[in-house]
Here is the input.
Amino acid sequence: MQSVVRGRVREWTALLSVVSLALVFGAALGVIPRALLPVAPDAVFDAIPHVNAVLSTLAIVTIVAGVAASRRGDYERHRRLMVASLLLFAGFLVLYLYKVTVQGPASFPGPAAVEQYLYLPLLAVHILLAVVCVPLLYYVFLLAATRPISAVFDTRHKQVARVAAALWVVSFVLGNVVYVLLYIVY
Here is the structure.
């Protein structure tokens, strides 16, 4: 499988990106039938945003630590931290998709002015960055996962990863700001 993907990283990136984004937008737009999923108790749904905030914060830490490890030349640690970041993101995404598919997107409970001038612009940038990050993350992950570390230097991994990591951190930070506005401030 590794050799099949290695020669077609762009194609696999496109395929995985389309499938992933279709799931996200399908859940957010209510296209995925709720009946496909079991319904958890209300306490589980109430906990998901808080668990996701923790997962997001941990992902920010692992991304920043992974970038620092790469800059120090500790590529094995970098790889472990970035895989941890992807796993944290995957956990976040599974919980988010489950909640949104079953309950729909959260509505903003605060004042209309805050929603219009703060919450919605932050949410829009967060979503835009998350969407842009998906193919970038798949691309750098597939480049790294299909090659020994020494061969990764012969790819565009470093250039694309710099952009991906920066956008990913900002997206996670904005996601946490959205969380604070939705579940703590209001």
Notes: Residues 112-145 form the longest helix (34 residues). Residues 143 and 154 are 10 Å apart (CA to CA). The chain has one domain: 2-185.
